[in-house]
């Protein structure tokens, strides 16, 4: 089960925007999944705990409908509550071991490694299922994010067999170089969910990743 989920970390890794209107969020996510997103990560920094639960459950049903891997940002307890496929941990979100103990052996644990190869090495040694690097380009969501160099992807690819996710200001125009450098998945928020046509934007990323 876990190995199958690991192999699903590829292509367009769509991360939800901070949307408080659940109906609007679900409509946008449905469009992104219809456009070929292969992973959905639920993240909403504006929502309170009650809304997080409502939206997370609704998105679980939607991702099951499309057969898409479903990851919860930061919160292993919420991931457990909605039976998500895994959790993604940032630098302040606890250890891989703690998340694994909470979720069990069959769920995914992904880790943000920013621009540091050492963090990726430590995450892999601790049992992480995938690693993420970024920001590779200027990000409107996290304008103060640390900057990662594309060469980091080459180095990580040489060292690790884990799926690698690239994040940060990614567009269809600049995403190809990240895939060529070793990224398996492109994590995108704005370039998909702020697009006038979300499904079309998602499809463009999906086509790019399949080349």
CATH H level: which superfamily?
Answer: Aldolase class I
CATH fold naming: TIM Barrel
Strand content: 15-25%
Q: Note poorly predicted spans.
A: none
Distance between the termini: 27 Å
Shape: globular
Using DSSP, what is the number of strands? Answer: 8
CATH class: Alpha Beta
* Helix residue percentage: 40-55%
C-alpha-based Rg, rounded: 16 Å
Largest sheet, in brief, is: 8 strands, parallel, barrel
Secondary-structure class = alpha/beta
Strand order of the largest sheet: 1-2-3-4-5-6-7-8
Helix tally equals 10
* CATH architecture type: Alpha-Beta Barrel
Descriptive key words:
alpha/beta; 8-stranded parallel beta barrel; 17% strand; TIM Barrel; 211 residues
Short description:
This protein has 211 residues and is of the alpha/beta class. It is 46% helix and 17% strand.
Overview of this protein structure:
This protein is an alpha/beta fold. It has one domain: Aldolase class I (TIM Barrel, Alpha-Beta Barrel), CATH 3.20.20. Helices cover 46% and strands 17% of the residues. The protein contains ten helices and eight strands. It has helices spanning 2-7, 22-34, 49-66, 76-81, 96-103, 117-125, 150-159, 172-181, 190-193, 198-210, and strands at 11-15, 39-42, 69-73, 86-89, 108-112, 130-133, 164-167, 185-188. An eight-stranded parallel barrel has the order 1-2-3-4-5-6-7-8, surrounded by seven helices. The chain is globular and about 40 Å long. The model has no long low-confidence stretch (mean pLDDT 96).
